Amino acid sequence: MPRNEGVRFTSYSLRVPLSPPPPLTHHHRHHLPLFSNLQFTSQTLIASTQSSIDQFLKKNQKNPRKLHKPQNIQTLIASSLARTQFAIDQFVKNFKKTHKRFQHSRYLSKSSLLCSASLALTKPDEPAVVAQPKGGGSEERVLISEVFVRNKDGEELERKDLENEALAALKACRPNSALTVREVQEDVHRIISSGYFCSCMPVAVDTRDGIRLVFQVEPNQEFQGLVCEGANVLPAKFIEDSFRDGYGKVVNIRRLDEVIDSINGWYMEQGLFGLVSGVEILSGGIIRLQVSEAEARQSLKQYLGSLLPKKGQVYSMLQGKRDVDTVLTMGIMEDVSIVPQPAGDTGKVDLTMNVVERVSGGFSAGGGISSGITSGPLSGLIGSFAYSHRNVFGRNQKLNVSLERGQIDSIFRINYTDPWIEGDDKRTSRSIMIQNSRTPGTLVHGNQPDNSSLTIGRVTAGLEFSRPFRPKWSGTAGVIFQHAGARDDRGNPIIKDFYSSPLTASGNTHDDTLLAKFESVYTGSGDPGSSMFVFNMEQGLPVLPEWLFFNRVNARARKGLDIGPARFLLSLSGGHVVGNFSPHEAFAIGGTNSVRGYEEGAVGAGRSYVVGSGEIAFPLSGPVEGALFADYGTDLGSGPTVPGDPAGARLKPGSGYGYGFGVRVDSPLGPLRLEYAFNDKKAGRFHFGVGHRN
Asked: End-to-end CA distance of the chain, in Å?
């Protein structure tokens, strides 16, 4: 048996038209009618004996009852041969002028081969004569005594397995059966449907024992090689593996059709516009595949940069979806769609992106709750007012001016963002920020016995660059300058708290810091319950002697797991700082987004920290879901290393845990969280939050 390694596979980068197959043409004015109702197999060309049989039946209509007796049909047909000979001879003369047997089609598509078949009524010593069909057909039956399968020359097939395949395909044509022309035609289709034969000609021969029905078939060639043209992105190994099992075997059209479907399926799975547009069996058993891949001829991109495929690239539906999502994330488009249109060049498409632009600028107002308030949720309420412009200079650059104001908090921010720097092929964004804020200092320096309060004022300006560098990964680098100091409840600058703990590292009323920042973020599906990892590092640069010099690292990780209708969420965070840093910048532990059951910052404040949390959420009714949770946090014994030991002065434990339950409700502002937790001191506390935990 021939070895598969002998198969020769070649591929050519030739473009193949996506146009329909060329029409079949003949050199004669008349041709045999097509029988085209056979699905997924070859179309069959049928010429029946209806004409000659009808002539015979018309001459015997005077005694129709005899025609319905099977035992009389054979005798009547034999006796009528002489009477119908003249009509048959006239038909033969006309037929020889027009009849030409069909060979392989020059073009094979889904129904890939045209196979010839005809039905003739002859004498044993005369060649088979093909009769023209008459419209409407006749349902009169003819008794068949024998059924054989032979080659196109009327001889036995060399391969008995192919003969058995043809005989097994027959359904109506059996020895000693009365058949109609339609039943013979259907069995011809069944033989062709087996996929092993390129032509089938049924021949009826009058013998001494009755009518013998012979199916003269021509088997397909044996597969000896493959030529594939136009498959520029289809892997060669995929084609080789699809055809390797058929080497040295008779080509089966049905199997070939399955291979074509698998190739077309590969393009669909990859989201590419490509298909097998032509199949041809050449002499010597060589199969030639013609593959058409729709290439982008030109794209209407304008300011969209390199979103759409470049000229000559094979168009990908998956890439198109990603491009649409990218444009939508710009925030300036109401609707985006990509429309591929046939181009003038064969096998290419033009891609047009249609967009509906949103209103560029406008005012907005809202509210929220500050996480740094320890005297109750109502005192932490804040309101916000903002003006934003989403398409500054018509280049999708964004300007945002906002003011947030509460009983204690206040933040005024100006932010300018260019989401994609012009000329950069890495999709790098640039952001310039100026901010003036006042936030409570209670996280580290709260709970003063005289009930006095202090706030931390910060003036910040920075420049940051961000870009994606791997799928689901993004990075940010920048430089930030900060001028920060503490004030009492009357607004006067102070350098120490009630316990004489310093509030600045420099000993002045303000600390100045120039920070070099780096941050890397991994996001899974983007869903709040999906995996997430954030790593952040800040380095203080002492450009001037009084500027602070320190290094701070911080990391957060989260992993979600669905267990039936419930969702398990595990989160872990930690950080460390070395060098000379402001005490109010210490890591605060405890509160709604840390260890629940404690007030904000009540567990401890240190140079180092670790906080872990486990949570199980489950649906209750509609947008409402319940949750069970447990938290633990520790400063790893680093509280006393913070200048002035503010945590030790306030007798904070340095570590603690909490557990409890809660409900969440989806809202336009995000999830509304109401939770009740107990800490390790058996004290209970309500927590209310908006949005997901950090």
From this structure: 67
